[in-house]
Write a structure and sequence with these properties.
By secondary structure, the protein is an alpha/beta fold. The chain contains 14 helices and 13 strands. Helix 3 crosses helix 4. Bound molecules: adenosine-5'-diphosphate and ligand VHF. The site of ligand VHF has 18 residues, from helix 1, helix 3 and strand 4. It is an enzyme of class 2 (transferase).
Length: about 375
């Protein structure tokens, strides 16, 4: 577990969030020089073997500039229209910047549903992981064009934390227009002091964190601290720093004293995904597994392959929570199924190489991947 900055070097998977306040040149749309600068910094991290997911705001700000609107409109549909116009520009601008470094980018627009709904959760995760394998930089933003108030995540600090949880990232870096987290809002209090490091769950942290952002931002420091707490719950550190500080990303990831480090603290690291799985109350079906599968699930933390399944009960869909029971009917584990019940019945006792032939399409080799499996307590 990370307890200080020296331990940051060598961490591999980072989610970097860039807020509206930083991206725009005085509300006049995106600042191309800044984007170029971050792209160069991210390219350098890439070259050192880091995987980076970029969560970038700026769609609304860029849309306002493109439409010639002087300020954020009050009506939701106008904000959504601006976001749609601006998102195209945002991704275009990033892809141009990264191209110079020979790096491809991908646009990933997520909604609350994508990170909360079982099937889509798996889809979002596998797409992002595949992009990282392909050495592409995913550029994530909330899908503002269709997210209504009821279903929106609302701010990208939270979206970035959800992305950390989704991918089990090592750390979250939030770049903003302040040097880090202060003990009170530095915009209002010139005496405010920068916090160097602290536990994300320290109750005092929220006392000084204001909830209002700048003219274009959404969350202020409060959502950043709450995001750090969510990241902490899956064992990740959060660094909050000034995005205009020279070489900020390299310095932060090397453990130099820049910005604020928020630590996961004593919380037991249990992958967020596993917490989330454990929190899903409704088991939709079950698979009976043989003694060998039961043993490796219980003791070796392995995935459940179709070959270990001896029977399938109930009706469930891909992404549903399914119980794995042994020959005596004792529950060994619960996890998210990669195949629905009909497919599972066809795969009983089969080796993974046969999946393509049996179903007519290929998919995951595992019926439940070990990352999506929570072993039940011993009886
Ligand atoms: N304790 C604090 N420390 C630092 N900044 C704070 C604090 N409380 C409130 N803020 C405000 O939060 C702002 C950053 O939030 P926001 O405008 O939403 O940025 P972003 O667009 O980067 O998400 C800062 O400009 C600052 O005025
Ligand atoms: N999704 C919105 C950004 C919302 C948001 O969280 O902004 P910020 O607090 O500046 O990161 C956009 O692209 O404009």
């Amino acid at each position: 577990m990370i307890t200080n900055r020296d331990q940051l070097a060598g961490r591999r998977r980072w989610v970097v969030k860039i807020g509206s306040a930083l991206l725009t040149a005085d509300g006049r749309g995106l600042d191309p020089e800044r984007l170029q600068n971050w792209a160069a910094q991210i390219a350098a991290l890439h070259a050192h073997g880091c995987q980076v997911v970029l969560v970038s705001s700026g769609a609304v700000a860029e849309g306002l500039a493109r439409l010639g609107w002087p300020k954020r409109p009050a009506s939701l549909s106008e904000v959504q229209a601006a976001a749609s116009v601006g998102q195209a520009g945002l991704v275009e601008a990033y892809s141009r910047c990264f191209e110079r470094h020979g790096i491809r980018t991908a646009q990933v627009l997520l909604t609350h549903e994508d990170v909360a709904h079982r099937g889509r959760y798996l889809n979002a995760r596998s797409t992002l992981l595949r992009l990282l394998e392909l050495k592409v930089i995913p550029i994530v933003n909330e899908n503002d064009a269709i997210a209504t108030d009821e279903i929106r995540v609302g701010d990208n600090d939270t979206m970035a934390a959800l992305t950390v949880n989704l991918l089990d990232a090592d750390g979250l870096i939030i770049l903003t227009d302040q040097a880090g987290v202060f003990d009170s809002d530095p915009r209002r209090n010139p005496q405010a002091r920068l916090i160097d490091q602290c536990e994300a769950h320290d109750p005092a942290l929220l006392d000084g964190a204001g909830a209002t952002g700048g003219a274009l931002g959404r969350g202020g420091m409060r959502t950043k601290v709450l995001a750090a707490r969510q990241a902490a719950d899956s064992g990740a550190v959060t660094l909050i720093a000034d995005g205009l500080e020279p070489d900020v990303l390299a310095r932060l990831t090397r453990g130099q004293p820049v910005g604020t480090l928020l630590l996961p603290g004593q919380r037991a690291k249990r992958a967020a995904r596993k917490n989330w799985i454990a929190g899903q109350r409704r088991v939709r079906g079950s698979v009976r597994i043989d003694a060998g599968a039961a043993r490796v699930l219980r003791t070796a933390g392995r995935s459940l392959l179709p070959i270990g399944i001896t029977a399938v009960e109930g009706e469930f869909r891909r992404g549903d929570l399914v119980a794995c029971v042994d020959a005596e009917g004792d529950e060994i584990a619960q996890g998210l199924a990669n195949y629905d019940a009909r497919e599972a019945r066809l795969l009983i006792g089969q080796s993974s190489e046969r999946i393509q032939g049996l179903l007519g399409y290929g998919g995951e080799a595992e019926f439940i991947h070990r990352d999506n499996l929570v072993v039940s307590r011993e009886h």
